Amino acid sequence: MIHSALTHAPIDAAELLARVGHDEDGAAILFLGTVRNHADDRPVTGITYEAYEEMASPVLAEIAAEAAEILGSDRLAVVHRIGELEVGEHAVAIAASSPHRAQAYEASRYVIEEIKKRLPVWKKEHYADGRDAWVQGTKPGATGSGTGTAAATAEGRR
Amino acid sequence: MSVQALFFAAYRDLLGTRALSVDLPEGATVADLVATLRSRGAPFSALPLEPAVAVNRAYAFPSETLQPGDEVAFIPPVAGG
């Protein structure tokens, strides 16, 4: 069963991985997006993630459903964390399994790339010098289907 | 008619508000709402000319016509993951 969710609690990667897998599957993969301790050369102490939750939940479900088409099964799970995260904490986790590895890798990659293009989530980096800034992102937009992405026009960092 | 404008992340910080009720003429579009807000002067004039916008939680084109009570979210460039 496809699973997608936003969460304010720490991500349990093992629990997510346990949601996928099947006797038919020879491959199961887990992707973790993790808060790193730097942005370029600048030390980072944490990241605050904010979401337009009423929209992000259905958009994440839509992305997961599209990825399941690539995967060829419903054995895909994704969760995105919201709130204040420290270095080393997981912001996003994606699990997928398939009979052969190619589909699992492709579906997992699709989910993270689409999250970055169109999930209404923002992150503010907190730096070691006490300053903070919203991370430069990707401009999402309407397409013919009413969802998805337009040109990846980045705006300047504030 | 009035619509509910929502602002997130950098836009909320810029404007100092998360939500505003905005009065518009019947038949106004997303682009009309953006222009109306930008015409209020600082800090609204610092909003982009064509920000990404979601109407009732779906990304919308600037030409989309608004209805009374619509929820119109101004979406800064997204940075999930």
Mean pLDDT of chain B: 98
Which class of chain B in CATH terms? Alpha Beta
Helix content of chain B: 10-25%
Oligomerization state = heterodimer
Number of H- or I-type helical stretches of chain B? 2
Outline of chain B = globular
Beta fraction of chain A:
25-35%
- CATH homologous superfamily assignment of chain B: Beta-grasp domain
What's the CATH H-level homologous superfamily of chain A? Molybdopterin biosynthesis MoaE subunit
Strand order of the largest sheet of chain B: 2-1-5-3-4
Spans of chain B of at least 5 consecutive residues whose pLDDT stays below 50 are none
Total helix count of chain A? Answer: 3
- Compressed to H and E, one letter per element, the order of chain A equals EHEEEHEEEHEE
Categorize the overall geometry of chain A.
globular
Strand content of chain B: 25-35%
Radius of gyration of chain B: 12 Å
Q: Indicate the CATH topology of chain B.
A: Ubiquitin-like (UB roll)
Describe the overall structure.
- The complex is a heterodimer of chains A (158) and B (81).
- With 158 residues, chain A is of the alpha+beta class.
- Chain A has a single domain, classed as Molybdopterin biosynthesis MoaE subunit (Aldehyde Oxidoreductase, domain 3, Alpha-Beta Complex), CATH 3.90.1170.40.
- In chain A, a hairpin with a 4-residue loop joins strand 8 and strand 9.
- In chain A, helix 2 runs antiparallel to helix 3.
- The longest helix of chain A is centred in the middle third of the chain and has 19 residues.
- The C terminus of chain A is likely disordered.
- In chain B, strand 3 and strand 4 form a beta hairpin.
- Chain B contains two helices and five strands, in the order E-H-E-H-E-E-E.
- Chain B is an alpha+beta fold and 81 residues long.
- A five-stranded mixed sheet of chain B has the order 2-1-5-3-4.
- Chain B starts with a strand and ends in a 6-residue tail after the last strand.
- Chain B is globular, with a radius of gyration of 12 Å.
- Chain B has a single domain, classed as Roll (Ubiquitin-like (UB roll)).
- Chains A and B meet through strand 4, helix 2, helix 3 and strand 8 of A and helix 1 and strand 4 of B.
